[in-house]
Amino acid sequence: MPTEFPxxxxxxxxxxxxxxKQVAVFTTALITGFGSAxxxxxxQLAFAPMLSWMxxxxxxxxxxxxxxxxxxxxxxxxxxxxxxxxxLFRDLLYGVPPFQYALWQALLYGVPxxxxxxxxxxVGVKFSAFSKRDGANRLFLSIAIMGxxxxxxxxxxxxxxxxxxGVRGIPIxxxxxxxxxAGGVSQATKIPSGILLIPGLYYLIGLKAIPAIATAHVxxxxxxxxxxxxxSRTQTKDPVYAFPVTLAACLSxxxxxxxxxxxGNNEGNKWMLYAFAAVGMFLCGRELxxxxxxxPTSGIDSVASESDTKSGx
Length: 313
Prior knowledge:
By secondary structure, this protein is mainly alpha-helical. The chain has one domain (18-293). Helix content is 75%, strand content 0%. α6 (136-157) runs antiparallel to α11, α7 (171-189) packs antiparallel against α8 and α8 (193-205) packs antiparallel against α9 (209-234).
């Protein structure tokens, strides 16, 4: 009789969960970085909550990595835009006229704008207690969403007969004043400063979309520099996810810088502002939904909870 062999069992391959998480983090960082690059909004606004949700990072660790990510995205976007502009200046790629976009203004006026925003934030801290009241922050976020809708409607109405925007004056003083206003209002109302900064640069300073976005990236980079350095010194580095995040930040920033210079001509500025307004509404709407899920911190409910705590003690 033929000998019978026992059936062999195939070993199941273990699922590499870490590799799957790396791919998920890289994809999320790539999309988030590209959205930040073409809109001028800080990448940390959307990336920090994603890190807490996907990887279970604590708030401080997620914020530290998110600031490093935002710094890399903004730096790569500005470098990419300047590099591709000089490449187009040689008229070897697409025949775009030389120095059509004054990107050097982003480097020149981004510093006084950042200084103004820092000073404005210091002043706005004194009024930030009002935004902590129940309903106040939701009201400000709702106003910001309506402001984004106004940007969309206003941009849709623009044509060749639309007069040029901008206020006349000494440029450095205008940037300082805009920074003071944007930083103070942002700190007092807890609205992301980028949502106030881009419309201010576009309508008040009179910049086109590309210089406005590049200037915003200079401010984001300067604002994220110190938190990123502090996080790198105080927190342990995560080599598993640090490399895919950094790689995604560089690739998305360079791609965004190329896209701004390549397709951001005077006739194509609208799509950038549409993207900015759409992302701004998404961020405000997400924060508004988060605020709606939180229990009230003042009013009858908080007084009752305090009395119950005292009675329990």
